[in-house]
Amino acid sequence: MDHDLKHDFPIFFHWDSKGKPLIYLDSAATTQKPRQVIQAIDDYYSKYNANVHRGAYELSQVATDLYEDSRAAAARFINAPEPESIVFTRNATESLNLIAYAWGLNNLREGDEVILSEMEHHSNLVPWHIVARHTGAVLKFIKMGGDFQLDLGSLRKILSAKTKVVSVVHVSNVLGTINPVKEITRLAHEAGALAIIDGAQSVPHMPVDVRDIGCDFFAFSGHKMCGPTGIGVLYGRLELLDRMEPFLGGGEMINEVFPTTSNYAKPPYKFEAGTPNIAGAIGLKAAIEYLENIGLQNVMEHEIELGNYAAERLSAVEGIRIFRPKKTGTGVISFTVDNVHPHDISTILDSEGVAIRAGHHCAQPLMRTLQVQSTARASFYLYNDKQDVEVLAKALEKGVAIFKPRKKADVFK
Amino acid sequence: MDHDLKHDFPIFFHWDSKGKPLIYLDSAATTQKPRQVIQAIDDYYSKYNANVHRGAYELSQVATDLYEDSRAAAARFINAPEPESIVFTRNATESLNLIAYAWGLNNLREGDEVILSEMEHHSNLVPWHIVARHTGAVLKFIKMGGDFQLDLGSLRKILSAKTKVVSVVHVSNVLGTINPVKEITRLAHEAGALAIIDGAQSVPHMPVDVRDIGCDFFAFSGHKMCGPTGIGVLYGRLELLDRMEPFLGGGEMINEVFPTTSNYAKPPYKFEAGTPNIAGAIGLKAAIEYLENIGLQNVMEHEIELGNYAAERLSAVEGIRIFRPKKTGTGVISFTVDNVHPHDISTILDSEGVAIRAGHHCAQPLMRTLQVQSTARASFYLYNDKQDVEVLAKALEKGVAIFKPRKKADVFK
Amino acid sequence: MSLNDLFTEIILDHYQHPHNHGIIAEPTMSSRGFNESCGDDIQVSVIVRDGTITDVKFSGAGCSISQASASVMTDLIIGKSVDEVKTLAAKFYEMVKGSGGDYGEELGDAVAFQGVSKFPVRVKCATLGWHTLEEAFKSADKK
Amino acid sequence: MSLNDLFTEIILDHYQHPHNHGIIAEPTMSSRGFNESCGDDIQVSVIVRDGTITDVKFSGAGCSISQASASVMTDLIIGKSVDEVKTLAAKFYEMVKGSGGDYGEELGDAVAFQGVSKFPVRVKCATLGWHTLEEAFKSADKK
Ligand SMILES: Cc1ncc(COP(=O)(O)O)c(C=O)c1O
Ligand SMILES: Cc1ncc(COP(=O)(O)O)c(C=O)c1O
């Protein structure tokens, strides 16, 4: 990055981590927010707050325009053909549930097959468990092969006329693997199935073009890309959204309501029942503009560089095992250290001001494939630098020392 | 109100409505936000932002504590027995859909009956249409009787062993009618049915005690009570929440996930899949504290006084018809004016800086009962005063003059 | 942004005394349009012979702008070809969205809606009749 | 808030060499507990005779704090009555939440966890074994 972007993020100057600077390495969980985003939310509430699509007064029109401008910004950001194909949700999780419920419940039949992968986040697993229970659909899995890559051969083997959906993660939140979603989409379409991509970990970190991928649905979250909490996006091909049943019922998503029946508005409104997270959408637009200004290509290169540097630097730590592909490694690096549980690693790093994540990362099936109960994970973003990696490595070495196998006598000598 | 609360709300000083002061009379759609709430959101992002329930580092623990403090505040606000009975949602609409999907889809059978009322908001109608379509359940309606009150006789007539749910609005967003929800809950329980209350228009405006009401579920929205957009609440009796199937699937709501099955966390987490609207919950807590400081009893009395004053003052307007109960009128006043369409009323008022709502207010069945296509609605909140009513009345008279029935010649003379 | 710019004489007149109000029993094409934000609801039925509109009626309920606009539209399009009407509609949209330009001749009485451009909230009302008409064209094309 | 306050000698020792580790084949009562935030997973199986705990074992996987705490707990409760153990658990919760007070005698080796009170994120780890034990008591009560 050209200059120190930490200056755009107030938290690095306000959070007091025991007198030490905050080394925030948990951006895959949620990112920090630049002042541009915080200010956009403040401005909305202080100057333009009103409900949208409802009032016939000017203030409401201004709020509506701001909200719809955010939709247009989100469409532009992932190169969606039109704003109407962008549905605002709470987060990527809700986006994926929306498809599972609105499309899945109404279209899957007993014996139909849904293909997921071994590296899915729970958000792209549990909704399908629920839908499978209701419909009798069957779930199948793309296996993970060498270098933490999906094995497309295993996909080809399970694809069939029964396949109705292939839903996979774009970038793994544990491994950082970038999956070949364009190829997976092509294979899904050849089999006559829908292709759904969970882009929660791709959109914040690299240029994404949903038209180039060719997928039917694409999901992501605002809070993982410098935006506010409580706002997510579902992109859907417009003709699909148009044919689909709605998800939540309520205000704004209808044309006419009778006591026992209703007919529905056009997409995207059909899928946005009730008062939306207006401030959230407006904050998301500010985040998009912030990222566009820096350039997603730059963000990606910066993260890959940090990821590679960290992989090299950490490999010197005694007993470390790193779970990160050699071929398509990104700014996410998961690891374990012999004799030091990830949760203890996290506490030790925290005492040095370093925030990382420890646990199953909402990917328990992947943990079983990796044959670990949990991992530690450092994830980098545009505000991190090599100095952060240095502090991380030093703190890790301290942890190794504390947990060195010992007899009673030689503790803390 | 003791002093001029407008000073707490930045928008009254920042929105430039053509040089005229903003007379905001659309608080039933969404309320304005005091600086205390705006500041709480800013603080969170600037000082404490992290994902909740996931990190083992201190920053994440602080964010988690703030988020859970908000849950405790919401519980206290409606006198729920414990924080665990409070589920955070996007808005009242999602709260109601959660019940319809998670409880309804899994428990209703063909021929079971769901009782709603003629004055429901679409948010408490459309979810039941969807569930009825999936399950074969049948919807029945409590009729509206004199003085815009629900006719409990009509409820008694349709209650039976087939009734599984009675779901009604606490305060009508069109009429302001306060419904006897405690009595309705009692009748529902006698019949062995669940009682669900849509409190979107009660919680912001009067003291509410869910234990006193005795209902099984209670829904409301943060943005209608000085809080942020994108945050809502579902209160549910804990043993019910505990027995219920989940709604959205994803991170945070599970204990264990296997490729094709999962088992779920305890409430409320079972119902909060994915990263929640953390800043929204924290802003809601600030809103609750703001309202508690003023006192809900005071808010209610102030609004009833304004509502009564407006009903009297507006009744002088030529051709006006007011839809507001004499017995339980609140700070909501719907009306029509002969020869002037509500949408035109709204434009005319807007030109005087007065923001009101015109339309069906997401209550089309009620519009049919009232035999109107739409109404104009002024709704008051703690920052309004009698001067606002005066401006409203004068602007209305201007509208009547413009739309006086005429021959071509006498327009705008 | 004076109200007089919006509620012009022509608009008030068409609102209070709409032209071509009603439903054609056996239309060549018809459609129904909603304006969710304010509850406007308009039906348009049309008879087209050899590509020319020979009759059109509208019904429904709504505000002065939506009703008057539909009424003015019906006057304007009878006797014109479907293609001419599409061009007119595009002109009308431009005008009410405030793109400037001189619309005097072709749009006839519909120029009375020029003031709508200063009231962005009302653009949807002014265009509802026209959009509904175009929907009718489209649904006929699909058959 | 030094790390030495948290990772005490006793804790590291129990973590690396846990006591009473395993599963009782036919327990009087048993339960399984999760700590969703970090993936700790503990099973506790107990034999109770005449209200007294005669044997207890734990298994599962997790961090040093959760494993060591379960190990220390098993040492501490064998030979005690269920009621005594409940009182102990309450004391332990108090201590790790940092309510102050002197816990020396009754809690035995479990005082090594006093430092957890300065690491609020780890309280859930320290109490997991105890909570799981209490769940086992509860499920037995229900039968
Ligand atoms: C009575 C009632 N119920 C439900 C709702 C829905 O609230 P929201 O749009 O915040 O979901 C509203 C608000 O419009 C309402 O007035
Ligand atoms: C790959 C992936 N998918 C989905 C999600 C869910 O995102 P959210 O919690 O914002 O719904 C996450 C984030 O945890 C993720 O990493």
Tally the beta strands of chain A. Answer: 15
CATH architecture of the largest domain in chain A: 3-Layer(aba) Sandwich
Total of DSSP H or I helical runs spanning 4+ residues of chain A: 14
Strand order of the largest sheet of chain A: 2-8-7-6-5-3-4
Question: Helical percent range of chain C?
Answer: 40-55%
The CATH C-level name of the largest domain in chain A is Alpha Beta
Helix content of chain A: 25-40%
- Rounded mean pLDDT score of chain A: 95
Give structural notes.
The complex is a heterotetramer, with 2 copies of chain A (413 residues) and 2 copies of chain C (143 residues). Chain A has helices at residues 11-14, 35-48, 58-77, 92-107, 126-135, 152-158, 181-190, 210-213, 238-243, 278-294, 296-314, 342-350, 364-370, 386-402; strands at 23-24, 86-89, 113-117, 138-142, 163-169, 194-198, 217-221, 232-236, 254-257, 262-264, 320-323, 332-337, 354-355, 357-359, 375-379. With 413 residues, chain A is of the alpha/beta class. Chain A has 2 domains: 3-30 and 295-411, Aspartate Aminotransferase, domain 1 (Alpha-Beta Complex); 37-292, Type I PLP-dependent aspartate aminotransferase-like (Major domain) (Aspartate Aminotransferase, domain 2, 3-Layer(aba) Sandwich). In chain A, helix 3 crosses helix 10, helix 4 (92-107) packs parallel to helix 5 and helix 11 packs parallel to helix 14 (386-402). Chain A is globular and about 75 Å long. Chain A starts with 10 loop residues before the first helix and ends in an 11-residue tail after the last helix. The model of chain A is unreliable at 409-413 (pLDDT under 50). Chain C is of the alpha+beta class and 143 residues long. Chain C has a single domain, classed as Sufe protein. Chain: A, CATH 3.90.1010.10. Chain C is built from 6 helices and 3 strands, in the order H-H-E-E-E-H-H-H-H. Chain C has helices at residues 3-6, 9-16, 64-77, 82-96, 104-107, 123-142; strands spanning 29-35, 40-49, 52-61. In chain C, strands 1-2-3 form a 3-stranded antiparallel beta sheet, with helices on one face. In chain C, strand 2 (40-49) and strand 3 (52-61) form a beta hairpin. In chain C, helix 2 (9-16) packs across helix 3, helix 3 (64-77) packs across helix 6 and helix 4 packs antiparallel against helix 6. The mean pLDDT of chain C is 91. Chains in contact: A-B, A-C, A-D, B-C, B-D. The interface between B and D is small, with 15 and 7 residues. The structure holds pyridoxal-5'-phosphate (PLP) (2 copies). One pyridoxal-5'-phosphate sits between chains B (91-93, 121, 123, 169, 173, 198, 200-201, 221, 362) and A (251, 274-275).
